[in-house]
Amino acid sequence: MLINLHQIKFKILTGLLLCTFFSQAQTNVKYKLQGANIYAGIEVGSKGVKMSLIEISGSGLKNGNYRILKDTSVNTDFISFTESSFQATLKGLTGLYTVAIVGNQIPSERIFTLFSSGVKVVADRENKKEWIANMAQAFKKAINEPARSMEAIDVVDEAKLSHLGIVPNSKRYSTFLIDIGSGNTKGGYFPSGNTKDFKLFQLTWGTKSVSNSTEKRMEEDNSLSNFNKQLQRVLAGQADEEITYAVNVSGAYNMSDNIAFSGGIAWATATLIYPELADNPVVPVTYDDVVKFSEKLFTNYKQLSDSALVKTISDNTLDKEMIRTEIKKVNKVFDQRALMSGTGLLLKIMRQFEGVYEKKQFFLVKNGQVGWISAYVNQAISK
């Protein structure tokens, strides 16, 4: 089933104006998933494979009538571009496809598969484009669907969808959204007071690509202190140059009051800095908050365990078991070194907006991770 993203882009963007957040996704709620109005979107991302199950009602995205029923992921580190990561990704991809088609009885024509822009960016940078083509071919062969479409989404479309899906209309033209992914970072803002003109911001660095570059520098010393030293060198080198240039070219400093970060590291950082705000989809932070958190990651990581953080919460009206569960999720997805890498990149970007004369408001968005792929699937079936 072939999908032309550019043909559906206008309807996607106008439809997303009706949705402010994708916070309806509740992975801990059980639904009866079989049904004629259930669709699946499976994305091969930099860090792994993700599947969103979506329920469409009425006229779908045109009237905002959809909800994300479940968001499931398998960590496979595809952008390491090794034989083992390739096989793990193929296994995860076919496994989630099987869950959709067999476990949830969703027919093939209602299952959409694609690569994220982060995968394409890293593959282009490292001259590994053939890995994407080979993965697509291996998957089509594994499921016996040679005509299946499996494209890599364009970074501009992904960035627009993220902004329109995450940022509320009331903050539409004063917010610069930056989505830090595993393999790349993208985002932007609307500089002209309309949603047609979009200023793209992108970096070829993400949480996992920073970590991978750090690991390659470590040689025979695998200690945490050496990891931290090499991480600072990676962030002070090409990454810093690219970040400074990209922010300056974007013009976002002068045009934006709010700087919002989404992506896995934003969710993880918000959860571990302010565990008592586990119910809040958006958490305001300061640059100093993140600096202190980054230092603790390296020097006192044990204090960021679920047991240690829950002990710091004195408000007995809060659901501490729910908070404990959220912290455990973070520490399952991100280990110490991944958190150090992602937070280091986050701080490098934040530093560009930490002005002396004008202070920006920083926000960490927790629930932006299911945004664009759900909109892609939804509009593809309602055009």
Describe this structure in words.
The protein starts with a helix and ends with a helix. With 383 residues, it is α/β, with parallel strands linked by helices. Helices cover 47% and strands 16% of the residues. Helix 1 (5-16) crosses helix 15 and helix 3 (117-125) crosses helix 4. Strand 5 and strand 6 (185-189) form a beta hairpin. The protein has helices at 5-16, 83-103, 117-125, 129-143, 155-166, 207-217, 224-236, 238-250, 252-255, 264-273, 287-299, 306-311, 320-333, 336-351, 371-382; strands at 38-44, 48-56, 66-75, 111-115, 175-180, 185-189, 199-203, 258-262, 282-285, 361-365. The chain contains 15 helices and ten strands. The protein folds into two domains: 5-154 and 371-382, ATPase, nucleotide binding domain (Nucleotidyltransferase, domain 5, 2-Layer Sandwich); 156-365, Nucleotidyltransferase, domain 5 (2-Layer Sandwich), CATH 3.30.420.150. The protein has a six-stranded mixed β-sheet with strand order 7-6-5-8-10-9, sandwiched between helices. Residues 1-32 and 59-65 have low confidence and may be disordered.
